[in-house]
Amino acid sequence: MKGVVVRRALWESRRFRGRGYSGACAADDVNELPKMPPFDYTPPPYSGPTAAQILAKRKEFLSPSIFHFYGKPVNIVHGKMQYLFDEKGRRYLDGFGGIATVCCGHCHPDVVKAIVNQTNNLQHSTILYLNHAITDFAEALASKIPGDLKVVFFTNSGTEANELAIMMARLYTANHDIVSLRNAYHGNAAGTMGATAQSNWKFNVVQTGMHHALNPDPYRGVFGSDGLKYARDVEDLIKFGTSGHVAGFMSEAIQGVGGIVELAPNYLPSVYESIRKAGGLCIADEVQSGFARTGTHFWGFETQGVVPDIVTMAKGIGNGIPLGAVVTTPKVAEVLTRRSYFNTFGGNPVCTAAGLAVLKVIERENLQENARVVGSYLKDRFNALKDKHEIIGDVRGRGLMLGIELVTDRTLKTPAKNEIARVMELMKDMGVLVGKGGFYGNVFRVTPPLCFNKEDADFMVDAMDYAMSKI
To answer: Where does the pLDDT of residue 31 fall: very low under 50, low under 70, confident under 90, or very high at 90 and above?
Structure first.
């Protein structure tokens, strides 16, 4: 701990000048610490409340359920592309992307311009009137999804999108039971909390008609990487846990909150077949894995060669703007005409203008290919780090959606919960922000903006390497 205190004092004594740090420091530390890549940008001066003042107000006025990372929370006041800046102007490499939300980069000028222009013209009306922003984006979004998935319902979040998808599946099939996966996270409202299968995120409230199949987790699952064996569990669940008829199956292709768990190969094709035989619809939760983040594909479900009946999305859809969507076929969409379905803010012109700008930036700047190339490079570097540090039990994911699971014993796979907190603190002190997740809270979630480059990847891995060498 003494070394940590010394380093913190050293870093806090430095003054950030846009490209890096200036000022005298110990020669050994200068040579040993990883160097942050240069970035030709200086944030505007900040004159707002301090971190301590904000934290005091949070404790007094915000929900006590709200938590924060780090023993000494970071007061983020500005962002630019893959970097964030604190109240003192210090730069941080953002390896979390606002929980896989910032895809184009913080304050991308094209997205900002679209938001400002639309705000200047019309901030809000209602979908009861015509406005081209919502239809332009819906058309562009539908063009990115395979099959007959082309009818779009806009929402305000991923939870809301998943709630709507569950209701539509139940209405369309006239069945009630929903199958999801253990370790899944789909939201925190009534239906989505039922579909979520981690006790950490579930309150003791009524959650009916939800069944959780074995998680096809190649690292911790009982069948390893054998996707077909896991798929047979879904067949058994339908036979023995339901009436034999289900409303649907909901899953992420890569579990985000669950610790970046990529489903075992060949799993979804077999499960989709079983679900459809039981009369159900297949729902792909693309809230975190969508919008080019996997690199190899635009949507996570495409990595398993399936086409769902309903796709839900949020987060990366708006680069940080509150926006979500449900996309389905015209036939399934008809169920909502049986009554009046309305959403005051779903399809807000400012949000949909931002969404369209995001799609254009992803295509024009070839961010999907960048996610593939840089993500592959980053994963290789993490695997090399695994060979060096026994504490790394598993490296997984694809593109710029990667997980690094820390364990104190590789054979027993004992979660390294305390150790990951220490590594995170040290990385933060070096200027690298990453997320964590998994049921045990021992998995690094690496989901940076898709403009992340190889120099950023090197700095992140070097910082993690240095931190792990100090615990």
So the answer is: low
Q: Which of 370, 327, 323 is nearest to 115 (CA)?
A: 323
* Closest of 328, 19, 10 to residue 152, by C-alpha: 328
The torsion defined by the Cα of 256, 259, 265 and 271, in degrees rounded to 10, comes to -60
- DSSP helix/strand/coil, 289: coil
178-181 and 210-213: which strand pairing?
parallel
- Rounded Cα distance, 163 and 170, in Å: 11
The DSSP line for 270-312 is HHHHHHHHTT-EEEEE-TTTTTTTTSS-SSGGGGGT---SEEE
Q: What is the pLDDT of residues 239-290, one digit of tens each?
A: 999 999 999 999 999 999 999 999 999 999 999 999 999 999 999 999 999 9
Share of the chain above pLDDT 90, in %: 91
Q: What is the pTM of this model?
A: 0.92
CA separation, residue 250 to residues 177, 193, 277, 330 (Å) = 11, 12, 15, 20
Mean pLDDT, rounded, of the chain: 93
User: How far is residue 11's CA from residue 261's CA, in Å, rounded to a whole number?
Assistant: 35
CA distances from 308 to 301, 305, 329, 356 (A): 8, 10, 10, 23
Top pLDDT among 407 and 23 is at: 407
CA–CA separation, 121 vs 401, rounded Å? Answer: 36
Contact 79, 94 (CB under 8 A): yes
Among 346, 284, 367, 446, residue whose Cα is nearest residue 131: 346
